Amino acid sequence: MATKLSVKSFFNSLDTRDIIIKYLVIIFLGLVIFYFDDQEIVDPTVNTWFILILALGKVFFFVNQSLRKISHVIDKNVAYFRFLIFMTVNILAVIISFGVDFFCLYTIDPTNFTGPAEPHGIPGLLFEFIYLSMLGFNNLGFYDVTPISMVAKTLVMIEILIYYFTIILILSDFISLRDSILEERLTRAQKKTQEKS
């Protein structure tokens, strides 16, 4: 029997609201750093360290979310296209959140990057750095905006680590990964059954 998919059931099956709220909080944290710098509440060096710590935390968060979703997909036998939609949302969150981080790093010290033409204003600069994040995440290189400082390059490398994990380890070999995990679970279940006998 065919199951009718409604938009509501589709989003509920992916826990989309929870995921989007978590991602918005991560992006909001980057904007808080911008606010702290803009209002000179915290020393610029401290803000730079906050950005790097936030970026490292995002690596663990995004990787953990991906692994948890793989487990959920396998346990519930969720359709592959639903997993791909989750990964699309995940990738967009990574790109936007790192774009915000690059923007914050630039506002702390414009010498961290070369290329953004002045004056863009806040929306234009934010666009430039989301663009940089998109190019970096997709491993297309850098064109208009280039990281110069060690901090900026480190932030780009952190984003690229998430890129490699997401694209190479998960999306490119999802079916093999799924089969491997299912086989391992089946083997464990068979051992438990044998031990009970």
What do you see in this structure?
The chain has 197 residues and is mostly helical. It has one domain (7-196). The protein is 78% helix and 2% strand. The chain has 7 helices and 2 strands. The chain has helices at residues 7-13, 16-38, 44-76, 80-108, 121-137, 150-171, 174-196; strands spanning 113-114, 146-147. It has a two-stranded antiparallel ribbon. The mean pLDDT is 77.
Going by helix content, strand content and strand pairing, the class is mainly alpha
Compressed to H and E, one letter per element, the order equals HHHHEHEHH
Major sheet strand order: 1-2
Number of helical elements: 7
The whole-number mean of residue pLDDT values reads 77
Task: Tally the structural domains.
Answer: 1
Estimated helix fraction: over 70%
- Overall spatial form: elongated
Point out poorly predicted stretches. none
Give the number of DSSP strands. Answer: 2
Give a short summary of the structure.
The mean pLDDT is 77. The longest helix has 33 residues, at 44-76. Strands 1-2 form a two-stranded antiparallel sheet.
Annotate the secondary structure layout.
Blueprint: H1 7-13, H2 16-38, H3 44-76, H4 80-108, E1 113-114, H5 121-137, E2 146-147, H6 150-171, H7 174-196
Antiparallel strand pairs: 1-2
Q: Top keywords for this entry?
A:
single chain, 197 residues, mainly alpha, two-stranded antiparallel ribbon, 2 strands, 78% helix, 2% strand
